[in-house]
Amino acid sequence: MQEIFIFFNIKNIDTFIFYIGNSLIKLSSCISLNPVAVTTNTVCVGLSINFSVSTTGTTTPTYSWSGPNTFTANIQNPSIATSSSLNSGVYTVTVTNGSCIETATAQVNVTICTGVNSNLEDNLSSVIVYPNPSSSILNIKTGEPLQEISIYNTLGALVQTEKTNTFSVEQLPAGIYILQIKTEKGTSTVRFIKE
Fold first, then answer.
1. Cβ neighbours of 162 (radius 10 Å)
2. What are 57-95's pLDDT values in tens digits?
3. C-beta of residue 83 within 8 angstroms of C-beta of residue 158
4. Cβ atoms within 10 A of the Cβ of 50, count?
5. Residue 97: which of 52, 147, 160, 33 has the closest Cα?
6. How far is residue 5 from each of residues 8, 9, 25, 64, measured CA to CA in Å?
7. What is the pLDDT of residue 72?
8. Domains of the chain
9. How far apart are CA 48 and CA 84, in angstroms?
């Protein structure tokens, strides 16, 4: 008859260690949380990227996110306030619950958007930017009162803000820019070319 000795690891109550004969046996009480990472797959340059992870069960795990452009976060639902093309790629969240470690991934593509965002209400669908291209003055025509215009370069950096429908762009270097036009009805994203 073989004797069984059971030793409990006091430091980690999720793991039980015991010997059967000369064999060391470790049992873990790991409960799978089945994490699912979620984000918007395609994001316009200059807009925010919001991440979330859902899990099954009733425990409270810890979260560790990592991704392109040295992105890290230790909360369940992090975000990047202003995206750039450097934020494109695969994001990984590691969910830790005691001795259980699981991962989930989400793909993000940050792109230069042209035209009007199709999620806007009908009043914003008539945004007109003229002349486009322009070397000096830019005019914005909307169906709603303008709140703010943010101008981003192709790297996602905010380079100018305006609160009027007509403004100078003379100080901007030649290139492609993204206009984020905010009104009470929503936000429109339009491409603009500076000559």
1. 18
2. 777 889 999 999 999 999 999 999 888 889 999 999 999
3. no
4. 14
5. 33
6. 10, 13, 10, 37
7. 95
8. 1-30 (no CATH), 36-111 (2.60.40.10), 122-194 (2.60.40.3080)
9. 9
